[in-house]
Amino acid sequence: MSDSDSLQQIAHLRREYTRGGLRRKDLPDDPLVLFEQWLQQACAAQLPDPTAMTVATVDSSGQPYQRIVLLKHYDAAGFVFYTNLGSRKALQLAENPRISLHLPWHFLERQVMVLGEAEKLSPLEVIKYFHSRPRDSQIGAWVSKQSSRISARSVLESKFLELTQKFQQGDVPLPTFWGGYRVRFSAIEFWQGGEHRLHDRFLYQRSENGWTIDRLAP
């Protein structure tokens, strides 16, 4: 197959979205109510990694970056994820706390986008979650200086074995460079696929009196 044939195939890849619509009359006043319903349905459908979400940050030059992390908690205060505090995203958030989250549930023909600002979690919250993780994941947090350049995977594997021996007895201590963020959200957009590309999009924006809800053109 030639490159042009391959590109033409990609250009024509599409499918109809037929799983149902989203109507204004069915929307709750609080976006978290709908988010919880959709997340529960994604879990019930046994989608791979239903809590996986893209995190978008911006560097000092305005260059956007994206990566995938796992949502670990959410409530009215915000959406929580954990990471290395020396990572690229953490350094960018230190300069500009504005952030976007995106959760794609393709099988259900749904997407959710969150806009807000990230703030660091308290040490108590971080310690509590860190010690709830599997032991190997705790050790893994020590191994990687996230986003730094390494010569080969064997560097990570050797370090993991070394630290497994070091922390053989007792609890794995919390690394000083490991923590988490709470995204205090100011807007949430819900996207539901529709036939003929007439998708349903609703944007919740925080206001003084609660939330405003607007339907957006697809």
UniProtKB/TrEMBL annotation:
GO terms for molecular function: pyridoxamine phosphate oxidase activity. InterPro entries: Pyridox_Oxase, Pyridox_Oxase_CS, Pyridox_Oxase_N, Pyridoxamine_oxidase_dimer_C, Split_barrel_FMN-bd. FMN binds at residues 67-72, 82-83, 88-89, 111, 146-147, 191, 201. Pathway: Cofactor metabolism; pyridoxal 5'-phosphate salvage; pyridoxal 5'-phosphate from pyridoxine 5'-phosphate: step 1/1; Cofactor metabolism; pyridoxal 5'-phosphate salvage; pyridoxal 5'-phosphate from pyridoxamine 5'-phosphate: step 1/1. It holds the Pfam family PNPOx_N. Residues 178-218 form the Pyridoxine 5'-phosphate oxidase dimerisation C-terminal domain. Substrate binds at residues 72, 129, 133, 137, 197-199. Binds 1 FMN per subunit. It catalyses: pyridoxamine 5'-phosphate + O2 + H2O = pyridoxal 5'-phosphate + H2O2 + NH4(+); pyridoxine 5'-phosphate + O2 = pyridoxal 5'-phosphate + H2O2. Keywords: Flavoprotein, FMN, Oxidoreductase, Pyridoxine biosynthesis. Its EC number is 1.4.3.5. Residues 39-165 form the Pyridoxamine 5'-phosphate oxidase N-terminal domain. Its cofactor is FMN. Belongs to the pyridoxamine 5'-phosphate oxidase family. Catalyzes the oxidation of either pyridoxine 5'-phosphate (PNP) or pyridoxamine 5'-phosphate (PMP) into pyridoxal 5'-phosphate (PLP). Homodimer. This is Pyridoxine/pyridoxamine 5'-phosphate oxidase. The gene is pdxH.
